[in-house]
Specification:
Blueprint (H helix, E strand, L loop, with lengths): L4 E6 L7 H14 L4 E6 L1 H5 L6 H18 L6 E5 L5 H9 L5 H5 L2 H10 L7 H4 L1 H11 L4 E3 L5 H17 L9 E3 L29 H9 L20 H9 L3 H13 L4 H27 L2 H30 L7
Parallel strand pairs: 1-2, 2-3, 4-5
Helix pairs in contact: 3-13, 4-8, 4-14, 8-9, 10-13, 11-13
Bound molecules: tryptophan (TRP).
Length: about 325
């Protein structure tokens, strides 16, 4: 049987946080043993809303790569690559854009939410509006079967599927592969402020690279049940991010269950639960932090890993582009 392929990635606009881990990083670490996995640092996509800050994007390529390596993405198993170094992706995008309507792009729910969040108004860059098509190029260039991402990325996979079907139908071929999204089974991680989503922009994130004192400060200030005023009062577990984090990170499930019971009955204070949560998070984060510091000592080596992966990935993308052009009948050759 043909080996299954994963393509996934992140925009390097900041370091990665616990929400990324729960949403898709954990899956990538696990699935790298079963799939041929490509993980893309999507710097070109990051530039679609950071055109004025290429330096920030450049800096964060290294941060994101360090996060990947520190959590256990193994460059011997996973091919890490830098998006902008594969120009074939731009070419594919150019052809795919003709298979998508402008109207379809305008109604992409993730794009609409981002336009609001970033306050673009009418001044939304054209490159930003079409990044979902460029993402379809990322996915199809590697003929990915599976795309492990957070649920906000579902509209992108849906669009990719539409492009794949339209391409194969229009050019009467089977060149492109229809991908499936892989959405994490674990519930989405809320922010430390209790908002539905942990995000760098909302400033409610715990980063994988946060030092211990920063994690302690964030956990201490975490939103809990606002109705839980006195220790003896019954507290709400549901929608209480402290317990959602325990669900996601505490390896000792019986302990979290008993804490939840005591909290709901009354008699367990927030500060005690938070103290335990900090222990749990540190149990998870401290080995990652140590590995990250070790790897960060030699940034050139990290760049080399990225360059090597990119070179390998480019061959794959280039071969898909050739097939695409052939299927379209635009593979002109001089005799
Ligand atoms: N859109 C993703 C993000 O916001 C990054 C990304 C770019 C991506 N290309 C991709 C994810 C291809 C999965 C597959 O972080």
């Amino acid at each position: 049987m043909k080996q299954k392929i994963i393509l996934t990635g992140d925009r390097p606009t900041g370091p990665l946080h616990l929400g990324h881990y729960v949403g898709s990083l954990a899956t990538r670490v696990k699935l790298q043993h079963e799939y041929k996995q490509f993980v893309m640092i999507a710097d070109a996509q990051a530039l679609t809303d950071h055109a004025e800050e290429p330096e920030k994007v450049r800096r964060n390529i290294l941060e994101v790569a360090l996060d990947y390596l520190a959590i256990g993405i193994d460059p011997k198993k996973t091919t890490l690559l830098i998006q902008s170094m594969i120009p074939e992706l731009c070419e594919l995008t150019m052809y795919y854009l003709n298979l998508v309507t402008w109207n379809r792009l305008k109604h992409n729910p993730t794009i609409k939410a981002e336009i609001m969040q970033k306050g673009f108004g009418e001044a939304v860059p054209a490159g930003f509006m079409m990044y979902p098509v460029s993402q379809a190029s990322d996915i199809t260039a590697f003929k990915a079967d599976l795309v492990p991402v957070g649920e906000d990325q579902l509209p992108m996979i849906e669009l990719t599927s539409e492009i794949v079907n339209k391409f194969n139908r229009t050019y009467n071929c089977h060149v492109l592969v229809n991908p499936k999204a892989h959405i994490s089974q674990v519930a989405r991680l809320p922010g430390i402020d209790g908002k539905a989503k942990m995000s760098k922009t909302l400033k409610n994130a715990i980063f994988l690279s946060d030092p211990e004192n920063e994690v302690a400060k964030k956990v201490k200030g975490m939103y809990t049940d606002p109705g839980h005023l006195r220790v003896e009062d019954p507290g709400k577990v549901e929608g209480n991010p402290v317990f959602t984090y325990l669900d996601a990170f505490d390896p000792d499930k019986t302990k979290s269950i008993s804490l939840k019971e005591r909290y709901s009955k009354g008699g367990l204070g927030d500060s005690n639960v938070k103290k335990y949560l900090l222990e749990v998070l540190e149990g998870f984060l401290s080995p990652i932090r140590r590995r990250r510091q070790e790897i960060a000592k030699d940034p050139q080596e990290v760049w080399n890993i990225l360059f090597q992966g990119t070179e390998e990935a480019r061959l794959v993308a280039s071969s898909t582009l050739s097939e695409v052009k052939k299927a379209m009948g635009i593979n002109y050759k001089s005799k």
